[in-house]
């Protein structure tokens, strides 16, 4: 691929840096064999000559774009920035850049972004926003071209590596804790019913109740979106009734924050009238005015392990069986459940 007239070439760069053209090529492809001194010389020459990398040409020559796609469902949800930071940092350590896509919980937008990543010839992608019933044809087509790793949310039948919390265990853990505090009528206010995280946490909730011979009432269960607004609206429907649950398990911390506001706006006390537990352990959950009891999932570890798995696939280990990384949840006890911090298992 020819450069525009007057634009410096890699040969010009090698001459100015006093190194061979093969050394310049190795540097441009992030080869660790290039010495620190050679790197400094090449970078100084790039600055002096105004050299910019031709990404399209590099992709044609090497077969790699050095790009990774990262698809998230809602960048405003405080769980995702920690995942994003871990993915970007780990990718950068290995010479990769990240294209970030925010689906806003829209299946149509998710499909559009998947097609965009294919068009940009990413070397692989990390998908955190998968929804049950999504367009699997596009995902299968992308999987044939580049490896994928599903993180946080997963779709069965898509043969990829996965990194996720043991969400069934997490739902059970949250509910068992409320049962241990004496609650027998415990409601559930969930997120997107098409998200595996919500499906599995709800399964764990039901599992804990049925183990005690308790059948959750339909009037005490709502599913919506993983947002503050959804949590507020659904909680208002439940707690405004004369007969209400004494405790609520919430689909994630963002939902739980909305639930907390709804409970207080009804003139009720937390946890005396309604105890609340969330999932994720986002940074604001630990603030003293909030003190949200929650089930922690290790967002940084999820991001780092996802990149590691993806790079292993990109670098040639394409035929091994899919790896399923299941991370252990941890209950973090704070004030909203009415328990004591030393109740944490």
From TrEMBL:
For bias type Polar residues, the affected ranges are 1-10, 19-28
Q: Which of UniProt's keywords are assigned here?
A: DNA-binding, Transcription, Transcription regulation
Domain HTH lacI-type residues, every copy:
8-62
GO MF term set = DNA-binding transcription factor activity; transcription cis-regulatory region binding
Q: Which SUPFAM superfamilies match?
A: lambda repressor-like DNA-binding domains, Periplasmic binding protein-like I
Q: Which InterPro entries match?
A: HTH_LacI, Lambda_DNA-bd_dom_sf, Peripla_BP/Lac1_sug-bd_dom, Peripla_BP_I
Region of interest called Disordered, as start-end residue ranges on this chain: 1-35
The record's annotation in Pfam families points to: LacI, Peripla_BP_1
What protein name applies here?
A: LacI family transcriptional regulator
- The source organism is Jiangella mangrovi
């Amino acid at each position: 691929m020819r450069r525009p007239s007057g634009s410096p070439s890699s040969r010009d760069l090698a001459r100015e840096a006093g190194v061979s053209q093969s050394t310049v090529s190795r540097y441009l492809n992030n080869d660790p064999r290039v010495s620190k001194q050679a790197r400094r010389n090449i970078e100084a020459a790039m600055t002096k000559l105004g050299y910019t990398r031709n990404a399209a040409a590099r992709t044609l020559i090497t077969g790699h774009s050095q790009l990774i796609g990262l698809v998230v469902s809602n960048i405003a949800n405080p769980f995702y920035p920690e995942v994003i930071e871990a993915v970007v940092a780990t990718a950068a350590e290995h010479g990769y850049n990240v294209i970030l896509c925010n689906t806003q919980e829209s299946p149509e937008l998710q499909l559009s972004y998947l097609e965009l990543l294919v068009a940009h010839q990413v070397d692989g992608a990390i998908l955190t926003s998968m929804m049950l019933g999504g367009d699997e044809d596009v995902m299968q087509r992308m999987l044939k071209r580049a490896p994928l790793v599903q993180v946080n949310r997963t779709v069965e039948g898509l043969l990829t590596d996965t990194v996720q919390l043991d969400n069934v265990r997490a739902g059970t853990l949250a509910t068992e804790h409320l049962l241990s505090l004496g609650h027998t009528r415990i409601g559930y206010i969930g997120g997107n019913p098409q998200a595996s995280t919500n499906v599995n946490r709800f399964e764990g909730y039901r599992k804990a109740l049925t183990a005690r011979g308790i059948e959750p009432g339909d009037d005490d269960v709502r599913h919506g979106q993983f947002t503050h607004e959804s949590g507020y609206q659904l909680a208002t429907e439940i707690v405004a009734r004369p007969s209400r649950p004494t405790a609520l398990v919430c689909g994630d911390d963002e939902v739980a924050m909305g639930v907390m506001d709804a409970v207080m706006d009804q003139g009720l006390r937390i946890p005396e009238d309604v105890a609340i537990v969330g999932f994720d352990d986002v940074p604001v959950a630990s603030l003293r005015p909030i003190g949200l009891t929650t089930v922690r999932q290790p967002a940084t570890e999820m991001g780092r392990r996802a990149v590691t798995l993806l790079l292993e696939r990109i670098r040639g280990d394409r035929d091994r069986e899919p790896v399923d990384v299941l991370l252990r949840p941890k209950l973090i006890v704070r004030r909203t459940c009415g328990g004591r911090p030393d109740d944490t298992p």
